[in-house]
Amino acid sequence: MTIISLADCCRRLSIDPKTFRRWLALHELTVQPHPADARIKGVTRDQLLLVATAHRRTLPSLPEVLPVLAPTGKPEPPPPLPRETIDLLQALTDLPAQIAALQQHLAVLTQQVHLPPATTSHSQDIAGAVAEPVLARPVMASPTPAKAAAKSRQLASLATDRPRQPVHVLPLVEYGTHGDYVVICPTQGLLSLQPDSPEWFTWLGTLSSFRFVGKFGRLTVHRESQRWPRAAWRAHRQIRNHSYNHRLGPTECLTIAVLEQAAAALQSHLK
After folding, report:
1. How do residues 186-242 score in pLDDT, each as one tens digit?
2. With helix as H, strand as E and coil as C, how does 171-208 read?
3. What is the pLDDT of residues 15-54, one digit of tens each?
């Protein structure tokens, strides 16, 4: 019996496989496996002629016997695995045994951690063995009270012999709460001087510097040391790490109005 494959039938009838299967179902024909290869499905020569005649299809000459497919050869063996893959498989095989050994070792360590504490006598022996070297060390003798007192007296004498730096306090001219100006001398105290009076200018002639706190600001006034005592006066103020100067003129020009004007000018640098 000759079996013609479905693909060959479709090619001979010039139709698609779906149409050919529908025609087979219409005539109640079933496909059959090829005797040489069961994977190939087909129909007999007579069934193909029946379908072609029923649907008015012309078939070329059909072979009496379908050529037998050549049997496939024996499959080639797979290539050998690389050495690294074999070592990895061996390591994976030994992994469960290693994990079990680690778990057993961990259990032993856990039991050792939870052992009961040592007895009191054993602890005392250890403490005594540790304390003996400490007690055997020589103890440094503390200084006697006499030596300590002598040392303190020596330090006190050094402190008293050191000369102290004199505190330099400048005279002060300040605007008071009652609307008048107060003149304070570091050595004589409060002076009864009237600003802008002859006594005022005479007193200024004896100074090299003084402080002024007015209604509009404050400043420090000092002479220009190059031509002292007839040198001109200069106002000075330190604001935000910056030094500001304002020239005032000679002593006869050093009135309260000039000082207030200079204080206001220096105060403006704060804005």
Report:
1. 988 889 888 999 999 999 988 889 999 999 899 999 888 755 657 789 898 999 888
2. CEEEECCCCCEEEEECCCEEECCCCCCHHHHHHHHCCC
3. 898 998 999 898 888 888 888 888 888 888 888 888 888 8
Report d(CA 136, CA 196) in Å as an integer: 86
For the range 209-212, what are the long-range contacts, defined as Cβ-Cβ under 8 Å and sequence gap of 24 or more?
Answer: 209/170, 210/170, 210/171, 210/172, 210/173, 211/170, 211/171, 211/172, 211/173, 212/172, 212/173, 212/174, 212/259, 212/263
Domain coordinates in residue numbering, the chain: 3-54, 172-270
Task: Tell me the three state secondary structure of residue 232.
Answer: coil
Structure tokens at 236: 């000075």
- Quickly tell me which residue has 């951690």 as its tokens: 113
Return the number of other C-beta atoms located less than 10 Å from residue 245's C-beta.
13
Burial 67-91 (b: 16+ CB within 10 A, else e): eeeeeeeeeeeeeeeeeeeeeeeee
Q: What type of residue is 98?
A: Q
Distance CA 236, CA 101 (A): 88
Q: Judge whether 219 and 235 are in contact, CB under 8 Å.
A: yes
Q: Model confidence over 103-136: pLDDT tens digits? A: 988 988 888 887 665 544 555 555 555 445 444 4
State both tokens at 243: 């030094």
Q: Which two tokens stand for residue 147?
A: 């030596």
Cβ neighbours for 173, distance < 8 A, ≥ 6 positions apart: 181, 182, 183, 184, 195, 210, 211, 212, 213, 259
Geometric angle at alpha carbon 58, from 52 and 59, rounded to 5°: 80
CA distance 8 to 17: 10
